[in-house]
Amino acid sequence: MLEPLERPSGALELVPLCRLGAGESARLARRELAEGEGCLLAAMGLTEGCRLVVRSNGDPLIIEVRATRIGISRRLAERLLVRSEPRAAP
Amino acid sequence: MTLAASPARGRASAPRRLLLIGNPNSGKTTLFNRLCGLRAKTANFPGTTADLRVGRLTPGRDGAPVEPVEVVDLPGLYSLALDLPESRVARGALEGIAGEAPDGAILVADATNLVRHLRLAGELARAGARVVIALNMIDLARGRGLTFDLERLGAELGLPVVAVSARRGEGIAALVAELRRMLDGEVAPAPGPPAGDDETLEAWAEAIVTASVGGAHALGSGADTLIDRLDETFTHPIAGLLVFFGVMAALFWSIFALATVPMDLIEATFAHLGSWLETHLPAGAVRELLVGGLIGGISGTVVFLPQIALLFFLITLLEDTGYLARAAFVMDRLLCRFGLPGYAFIPLLSSHACAIPGILSARLIPDRHDRFATILVTPFMSCSARLPVYVLLTGFLYPNRPAMAGLAFTGCYLLGSLAALGTALVLRRTLLPGRSRPMVLELPSYKLPSLRVALASAFEQAWSFLRTVGTVILAICFVMWWLSAYPRAEPPAAAVALASEAAALESSAPERSAALAAEAATVARRAQQEGSFAGRLGRLVEPLFAPLGYDWRLSMGVLTSFAAREVFVATIAVLVGAPDDSEAGVLERIHRATRDDGTPLLTPATAVSLLVFFVLAMQCLSTVVTVRRETRQWKWALLQLGWMSSLAWIGAFVAYHGLRAAGIS
């Protein structure tokens, strides 16, 4: 498993998407993907900076980006780095 | 761009053409069926590599004569800009099909998820296309508390927007009216979003939705614990697998259980037709051709129509519920161990109906090595064309024991799947090295499936099957009958002697006389077949198949079914000859047939050997051609043909000799 990456600027740390629990939300910060892997994600709405909510943390990891539910195999979720957002008050 | 050129240009003969475009899961196919009815055809346009569904816009209900308008259903796509086959097809179709620019496009947008769907509208506007937006699933969206200011939405987009529910048939008339306005040149291309990258497009779509859609979840659906729980169960490592096997077992059980009655009806109808012709036509070549050649051959194939229609009907229903996308993730964990991507699940599942749609759906697999590995193993899945052979042989192995026959059937499906996985494993270590790409898949909303869409799919496949029967199989039956009926041979002396004995006993012992006459006919028919062209050809190829336990008739069956497997039963039915007992079904006659030396045509060992052969062999020319087209190289198609044929021969050889060594002949 990857350790959280410390940002020298002191900004919020980046964590792999698969570290988030169900119900947690985050913004996609970086995609460490091979060439050609990212375009399908972008077309489904997973662009850098987009807000996502984890619905279930298994394999696949199920996230929601706007109204779209997307299943992402765990192998890939490990390479999507996100900035976790604080849980909204109920 | 071309679309904007001249909307009302006169095309004397060709119909006006509209493109139907939308994201996957936007309800595009349902809308297509609403607009065009069930009579769609599949066409391969020059300049595009895809088979596209084409329909005619159903004329207005007021009965006014309207010019023909063709609707082309493009494959579902997320973006025009992607380097994926469906995006290339859509870009090509927008440029023009066969040199003709389309007259406009219908964008199907899911009202419950508008931001993502409007991105595509932005891309179409950037391409200068004339577009009408069908805001689909409006009923679902309103049910979720969303409100739409359609006028504002249309004004922001600069495009006509019509709210529809394709599922319920709401708003279709208004949509058709708007399409007519577009065809009359009254819809101008939209200004579209400002130039920029993905983020610009996203921001543009989001601003429009914020301005024109109201409700708590306008930009997202919010939490839904029921869907979360269903998703978790269906993709769970153990529960998901159990549900998957349960669903598949129910699917295959339904196909066999529900198809029995129509299959029996079809067989009985053909048997009656045969015996009616037998009694009403004068003896001679015409009667022989009709009864033995055409009816025998065709009934051996048409009898499987109910199963094929049911398979497509049920798979389409299942796909429509949204479950299959979840099942793909269950299979992903299994398939990736063999070097296949989870995406391969849909091609492999469709291949149970026919390998060709399976291979075509492999286009959705983004990685080339993943895609090729999937294409190369797909034909191992037991397609519906193999069903006739499986039914014939398992029925022979376990007569009146449906449970055992069902098990043997399942064994055939398993053997095919194992061969596919084994082949994938070998391929990923040799010719297509590497691990399969991890999967990303949209999980569509769960919904009640549409009977209309499922019926359309079943109807389309059944019709295409009947066309094959009416052309290729009819022609092969005719040729096989001719080959087995000519050159004409005089009845041998033994037959003549039996016949005259029968004539002498006709009044004193009618039962004995009838038995002798039947024996005389059998001896004469056997002599005729032995001397016929088919007999000589069969004997020529017999040495190749003799090690597998096949006589010349079975060898001939394997040979003629090289082009299409479903021909096997038809060929054997024709070669077994005109029935002594016309009322017997064709399958029963084959089970009772004998070889030239009087031993049974089928024994348990030959039946198993034939089963193994048909599970593993390619035996389908259309698949070979499709693989060549999809991989763009003969190398892969021929490699697959050679590999599958060798595996089939070796497998059948091992099965035959293994069983004989175990004392089962």
In brief:
The complex is a heterodimer of chains A (90) and B (665). Chain A is mainly β and 90 residues long.
Keywords:
heterodimer, A: 90 residues, mainly beta, SH3 type barrels, 11% helix, B: alpha/beta, Rossmann fold, 3 domains, 7-stranded mixed beta sheet, two-stranded antiparallel sheet, 7% strand
Please characterize this protein's 3D structure.
- With 90 residues, chain A is mostly beta strands.
- Chain A has one domain (14-85): SH3 type barrels.
- Helix content of chain A is 11%, strand content 37%.
- A six-stranded antiparallel beta sheet of chain A has the order 1-6-2-3-4-5.
- The longest helix of chain A has 6 residues, at 38-43.
- Chain A is globular and about 30 Å long.
- Residues 5-10 of chain A have low confidence and may be disordered.
- By secondary structure, chain B is α/β, with parallel strands linked by helices.
- Chain B folds into three domains: 2-222, P-loop containing nucleotide triphosphate hydrolases (Rossmann fold, 3-Layer(aba) Sandwich), CATH 3.40.50.300; 227-487 and 532-665, no CATH class; 489-524.
- The N and C termini of chain B lie far apart (71 Å).
- Chains A and B meet through helix 1, strand 3, strand 5 and helix 2 of A and helix 3, helix 7, helix 8, helix 12 and strand 10 of B.
- Flag low-confidence runs of chain A: 5-10
Structural class label of chain B? alpha/beta
CATH architecture of chain A: Roll
Could you give a short account of the major beta sheet of chain A? 6 strands, antiparallel
Task: Give the secondary structure arrangement, pairings included.
The complex is a heterodimer of chains A (90) and B (665).
Chain A: E1 14-16, E2 25-31, H1 38-43, E3 51-57, E4 61-65, E5 68-72, H2 74-77, E6 80-85
Antiparallel strand pairs in A: 1-6, 2-3, 2-6, 3-4, 4-5
Chain B: E1 16-22, H1 28-36, E2 41-44, E3 51-56, E4 69-73, H2 85-95, E5 104-110, H3 114-126, E6 131-136, H4 138-143, E7 147-148, H5 150-157, E8 161-163, H6 172-183, H7 198-212, E9 213-214, H8 225-234, H9 239-280, H10 285-302, H11 305-321, H12 323-335, H13 345-350, H14 355-361, H15 368-377, H16 387-397, H17 402-429, E10 440-442, H18 451-485, H19 493-505, H20 510-531, H21 533-545, H22 552-560, H23 567-576, H24 586-592, H25 604-616, H26 621-631, H27 634-661
